[in-house]
Amino acid sequence: MFRGHGSDVSSPDRRRWLALLVLCAGVLMIILDGTIVTVAQPAIQHDLGFTDTGLSWVMNAYQIPFAGLLLLAGRLGDLLGRKRVYLAGLALFAAASALCGLAGSAGMLIAARFVQGAGGALVSAVALGMIVTLFPDPAERGRAIGVFSFVGAAGASLGMVLGGVLTQLLNWHWIFLVNLPIALAAGLPAVRLLDREAGQGLREGADALGAVLVTAGLMLGVYTIVGTGSHGWGSAHTLGFGAAALVLLAGFLLRQARAARPLLPLRLFRSRATSGANLVQLLMIAAMFGFQVLIALHLQEVLGWSPARTGFGMLPTGLAIGAVSLGLSARLIRTLGTYRVLLVGIGMLVLSLAYLTRMPQHASYPVDVLPALLLIAGGGLAMPALAGLAMRDATPADSGVASGLFNTSQTVASALGVAVLGTLAAGRAAHSRAAGHPAARALADGHRLAFGVAAVLLALAFAAAAVLLRERRAAAAEPVALAA
User: Fold this and answer.
1) Gap between the Cα atoms of 377 and 413, Å rounded
2) Which stretches of 24-164 are assigned E, i.e. beta strand?
3) pLDDT at position 54, please?
4) CA gap 29, 385 in Å, rounded
5) How far apart are CA 176 and CA 349, in angstroms?
6) Cβ-count burial of 112 within 10 angstroms (0-12 exposed, 13-18 middle, 19+ buried)?
7) Tens of pLDDT along 337-381?
8) Residue 3 — pLDDT band, cuts 50, 70, 90?
9) Which of 12-21, 270-279, 289-298 has the highest mean pLDDT?
10) What DSSP character marks residue 2?
11) Is residue 20's pLDDT more than 50?
12) CA 359 to CA 444: how far, in whole Å?
């Protein structure tokens, strides 16, 4: 998986950790892009003349191909070689970022965002599988996944800060152009540090029909979810496209059960760890991603904060998660076991969202917001544990598709969380305005309801983890173990 040229990377152990940093740099670029756009949307709307409905496609045009291609990209990594797929994804993402930064029209930006989503899927789908292969030792893998989770948390928070600062000091174009130096920093060392894997070859696992079914089904499903804000959950548009997506995904599962070389081997779901981890993540990410969007809106629309101040206000979340995931999570997993650490992490998240349900309209940041943001550190415990469990039983031949599956459930959950919690918040706010309350009070009412529902989703995640992921006593102290 790794190779050094010269004395600077002559130590195999050092090369592995340098390779980890290269992979994390690529993933950082993808995660940055997921949040950096959030606080810049008003400026993009004003500059390019987006309507309120059209503006949502700045995010949707990225999410749809990203979610739809993750499983296929993961399998392509297994078949063609993960390094090849990773580098292709970096190049595609960087080129699309340049087009986004140069976009002078709404149509050009949306088209470039679609290509960005495809490149992001290629990078994200194979990164975790490469880390698992780099670190077969359970203790080392726990530390490596902790670093990987830290990058995720840091990237999300840094994206909020950078988005606000770059938009205010320069302009929104720079939120995309900043990806170019990161792509170079990740891509050039990767050519040296990562070995070119031959892969199994397309003839060993090319399932063209399965690829078409799952890609179309996931894209259509995410399109349906993100469209609920405009069309409503009970509309003919939502029900029709939702039903079509379910038919396509059902057809994909039937195809995988019968195909000689399936795109997604259903044997992966025989692992209780894999199935349980993906289900728990679905509930947890739906709650947390919806929270991330809504708390940013609350700080700006209810408390009247600027984009830059909002980004810095969210920074304690990333710092808290990073401080926990970078070293503490791996040590706790070795001492207490993955199962206990996961439950503690999710429990902290439940308390965080429950705390936000009491937030008054004229909230004090140190008293009413900051404690909840610090409790989000539970994500720094929960995510490394979930990632380790999701990959624990994956064989080397299936690590790419297992990584793609984990990322797919995460992406679908984020779209679903924003759609569901955003719809609930908007509905409660509209009801509050109809009752004669001022706009800020109505928005605060809507956000409190959404935070409460998010807390319920996290409680369900806790229950699912407690039932499905309970470890045998003999294995409780080990974080993960790669299947032979």
Assistant:
1) 20
2) none
3) 66
4) 23
5) 31
6) buried
7) 888 999 999 999 999 999 999 888 788 888 988 999 889 888 888
8) very low
9) 270-279
10) B
11) yes
12) 8
b/e sequence 418-454, b meaning 16+ C-beta within 10 Å: bbbbbbbbeebbeebbeeebeeebbbbbbbbbbbbbb
For 32, 155, 183, 343, the CA distances from 28, given in Å and listed in that order, are: 6, 5, 10, 26
* Short-list 6, 13, 14, 114, CA closest to 67: 114
* Nearest of 29, 194, 226, 56 to residue 120 by alpha carbon: 29
Residues 6+ apart with CB under 8 A from 355: 371, 372, 375
Is the pLDDT at 406 greater than 70? The verdict is yes
Distance from C-alpha of 74 to C-alpha of 391, rounded to nearest angstrom: 13
pTM score, whole prediction: 0.74
Place of tokens 């993402």: 93
Q: Which CATH class is domain 7-206+261-475?
A: mainly alpha
Whether 203 shows a pLDDT value over 70: the answer reads no
| pLDDT value of position 455 | 94
Distance of CA 398 to the CA centre of its chain: 21
Three-state SS at 194: strand
Contact 400/82 with Cβ under 8 angstroms?
Answer: yes
Q: Give the DSSP letter string of 402-423.
A: HHHHHHHHHHHHHHHHHHHHHH
Q: What is residue 344's predicted lDDT score, i.e. its pLDDT?
A: 93
CA gap 202, 207 in Å, rounded: 9
- Give the mean pLDDT of 37-64: 74
Judged against a pLDDT cut of 60, whether residue 57 lies above it is answered with yes
pLDDT score recorded for residue 459? 95
247: nearest Cα among 214, 223, 277: 214
- Give residues with Cβ within 8 angstroms of 123, minimum separation 6: 26, 27, 29, 30, 86, 89, 90, 93
Closest CA to 151 of 22, 296, 241: 22
For the cut 60, the answer to whether the pLDDT of residue 1 exceeds it is no
Q: How far is CA 226 from CA 229, 362, 406, in A?
A: 7, 31, 20
Q: Which amino acid is at 218?
A: L
Q: Alpha-carbon distance 477 to 228, whole Å?
A: 44
Confidence of residue 195 (pLDDT cuts 50, 70, 90): low
User: What residue type is assigned to position 126 of the chain?
Assistant: V
Residue 200: predicted pLDDT: 57
CB hemisphere CA count around 125 (13 angstroms): 34
